[in-house]
Amino acid sequence: MRKRNLNADLIRCVAVFSVLSVHFLLRTGFYGVPVEGTGMLIMCMYRSLFMVCVPLFMILTGYLMWEKTLSRRYYKGIAKTLEIYVMASIVCLLFKKYMLEETVTLKSSVLGILDFDAANYAWYVEMYIGLFLIIPFLNLAYHGLKTQKEKRILLLTMLFLTMLPKLVNNFDLTTPDWWLSPPVSKEYDPLVPGFFTAMYPITYYFIGAYLREYDWKISRKKNALLLILAVAVFGTYNYYRSHGVDFIWGSNSTWGGENLITAVLLFTLLLHFHPDRWPKPVQKILIYISGISFGVYLLSWVSDQIVYNGYLNPLVTEVKMRWKYYPAAVPASFLLSVCGASVLYFLRRICGGIYRKLRDNLTKRQE
């Protein structure tokens, strides 16, 4: 029996908690106030840390699925993801209809589920379905390379195509002294081709596969220091780029070079922890939350509505004053999402049991 990879569980838990942490900025109005003052500098660093949420999931996908091959059994593996997505979408639709009093019809619900709009955070599902379908072919390409050097060249090529453009194509190089007023510079003068940036999930996937095969030998202390340095530098840089205006995303997006660096540093740091030495109750909690993390992610939209729109924002009207409530707001939203996801996965097991029983009875009758 294969030993459970508790480090993967740890990474998945940190990733889903980071999702809720970065959504804290969205829900408390961070993107609608000018970037200035010490508080905004701290929040820019906060954002640089927690924007690793989705990249962590993508790297973990490559880390865990790097040996998957083309087979009927493999493609059946997408069923659980789709089932949880549909169930979470129904919950979101019911919340919109009965709590937010939005107009929700059967037709709009079906179209919303098919268009990945019913669950508001479901863009990731749309991306993952495409990635899942091509993973066996990505693995054929990766394992077709014979040496570590060839695989490094593959990574460098993907980084050049998908990550570098967002890092270097957002400077106004034609305006004199543009660096004195950095907010005017967004995406002006391309220095490298940017056509393939939407392929960034494949880049993260290959990074995960590479780390699974070769790892990254670095001490935890040095790894942690590099992560802290990266968060501080990138946070300060984004503060500088957005100073005086609303936050400018620039290279600090999911497919930006900044998040690539911080995500890899955090991934490798978590990879070299030893959760197998932690107390058994902690391990069980880790495994449980990891197992329902997809549902937690999708239902966090509902819990965010309850925590922020229902309580925090009406009570604390000044945006910058809301940030001190992070230690209460994010754990509250996370706990609500865990409870909701627990019910969702329980219902899925019940429905699965009923389906299997009906299938077995039908098979017996045919015999």
Describe this structure in words.
Helix content is 70%, strand content 0%. It is mainly alpha-helical. Helix 1 packs across helix 13, helix 3 crosses helix 12 and helix 7 crosses helix 10. The longest helix is centred in the last third of the chain and has 41 residues. The mean pLDDT is 91.
Topology:
Layout: H1 6-27, H2 38-50, H3 53-65, H4 72-76, H5 78-98, H6 106-114, H7 123-143, H8 148-162, H9 164-168, H10 200-214, H11 220-242, H12 257-271, H13 280-291, H14 293-315, H15 319-322, H16 326-366
Descriptors:
single chain; mainly alpha
Write a compact overview of the structure shown:
With 367 residues, the chain is mainly α.
User: What's the pLDDT, averaged over the residues?
Assistant: 91
**Tally of contiguous helical segments:** 16
Strand content: under 5%
Low-pLDDT sequence parts: none
